[in-house]
Specification:
- By secondary structure, the protein is mostly helical.
- 32% of the residues lie in helices and 7% in strands.
- The protein is built from 6 helices and 5 strands.
- It is flat and about 45 Å long.
- The two termini are 33 Å apart.
């Protein structure tokens, strides 16, 4: 089984149209020769473009192991390093400039981009996703049992509860282990506080 906490990074250009993060990752793997350790089915799918296998959106459908991805729709690392947004989409108490225009659209688009990217994984029998509409990265260390981090809000579906049911194969709520917050940021009030 696989239980990644964040890391379902998307292959997207930044706010200026530059493939900054993808280029850095590609460069790192070019220098280290790390491509050979990536998913072999993905490497066969993209001959001559092994860097595409750094992004799960390009091979999630090929995974044979059961996987439950724990990933925010609005990953703070992707905001900073992929999209290179330095603005605040709301709720920052004036600590940063508010996102507006194209920057706000890029931020808001993260939700649908993630949903589309992991859809092949979410459709696989025994696999799924737990994704709140919160700004976060690596959530398990601080929000594992926190009732403010439930999907959907107020449901009791904390990370800990969903992972326990997933490991036991208990799909009693018939959600097929797909817990995607229906609300956009910042409408999931408990975690957007």
């Amino acid at each position: 089984v696989g239980l990644p906490d964040a890391g379902f990074f998307l292959d997207r250009p930044d706010k200026d149209g530059v493939n900054c993060w993808p280029a850095q990752m590609k460069s790192l793997f070019d220098v280290s020769g790390g491509y050979q350790h990536l998913h072999s089915g993905c490497l066969a799918r993209f001959p001559g473009e092994p860097w595409k296998c750094l992004y799960p959106e390009n091979y999630a459908d090929l995974l044979k192991s059961r996987v439950l991805a724990l990933n925010s729709f609005y990953d703070s690392s992707e905001m900073s390093y992929t999209l290179r947004l330095s603005c605040c989409p709301g709720g920052c108490g004036g600590r940063a400039q508010a996102c507006a225009g194209r920057d706000l659209k890029l931020f808001q688009g993260m939700k649908e981009d993630h949903r589309k990217a992991w859809a092949p994984l979410a459709r696989k029998n025994g696999s799924g996703v737990w994704s709140p509409s919160c700004i976060a990265h690596t959530m398990t260390c601080e929000s594992w049992t926190d009732p403010a981090w439930e999907v959907p809000a107020g449901s009791g579906n904390t990370m800990a509860a969903v992972v326990a049911r997933w490991l036991a194969g208990d799909d009693a709520d018939s959600r097929h282990f797909v817990y995607e917050d229906p609300e956009p940021w910042p409408d999931n009030r408990p975690c957007a506080r």
